[in-house]
Design goal:
Blueprint: H1 3-22, H2 27-32, H3 36-51, H4 58-79, H5 88-103, H6 121-131, H7 143-157, H8 163-168, E1 175-178, E2 185-191, E3 214-218, H9 220-232, H10 253-266, H11 269-279, H12 286-303, H13 308-319, H14 327-336, H15 338-341, H16 353-356
Antiparallel strand pairs: 1-2, 2-3
Helix pairs in contact: 1-4, 3-4, 3-5, 4-5, 7-9, 12-13, 12-14
Length: 360
Amino acid sequence: MAPSTLGQKLAHINALYVHVEEHGQNLDDALSAMDLVTLGSLLESFFVKLRNVPHPNGSTLNRWNTAFHFVRDTLMRLEKNPAKAKPLEAVMGRVNHLDNLYLGLRPYRPKKTFRPKALPRSVVSELLDALQPGSPTNPYRSEATQWRMLAVVSLMLFQGLRRGEALLLPADFLKVERHPRTRDLSFRLSVRNVETEEDPRANAPGIKTQASIRTIPVARQTAEVFQTYSENYRGRVDHGFFLSSVRGLPLSLAGVNKGFDPLTEALSARARAELLDFTGSDRLRPHSLRHTCAVVRMRQMQAADVPTDKAMMNLRSFFGWSKGSTMPLHYAKAALDEQLNESWNDKLDDRLALLRSLPQ
């Protein structure tokens, strides 16, 4: 697991231990004794505690599922111990009993639909105007910060990278190739784990899944943003990551989130209202840029009459989704939505005056 995912799961399990201790009992003792009556009572009380929070959400469900499966899997490991000489029927009988009682419980009613939170055109237009280095609406004082945030937004909005993927990019991530016949330059980047670099960040970013490791093309204008930041504004630092903070350290997940706050404040009241209407939040979120990129890429392929199965395959490859992921279906639906269609031109890169104004 990625360190952040592992940390969350351990925190969920720890919450169960704390809950049991608050009731004057010991979870390890109940597990060792395989006391299903006691374990059932503890799980039920833990469920009630989670269910009675003011606003149950997806994190509440994750906490319950993690805690339940920890108990379930621990019992399975104990009962499979040859020293106990338990027959398989007894093992599965106990586990199935727990499954029937508690596996279907939900601390809250999950949302039935997923709606990609793509940004409307007015928000992206104001965002890009504000991001232009030297622009009077740019909310960052330092020129280096202006270029750093432009690079961050470009990685998410144009390349569809997740926060962690962008923060893991090495300084030399951008690769350049020249076509042997036309001599035209092409650019690409690879998303991968960096195993040789020691990461000093407390909450180290990571690659989400094996499918996230991928190589994707980069438009020339976008590549120029990365090159300009790297050559002129990244600074002399003692680490090998592409994105660097003001203090010369690798940029952190919290640093990215904090960097988006001034961009939100730079939006007009009208754009903030549209942002709330489209995404359900009046704040710019880094992941919304990835949502936006996915919807636009899908629309581009639909406009080019790319067959649906091939379009889905292209989306999986570009955004790092596994073969079994349903995410491309959500974005295909969103790309056909009338409201989103009215909010975007078919081509994203061609309409960006910001990128066209960069040095050639």
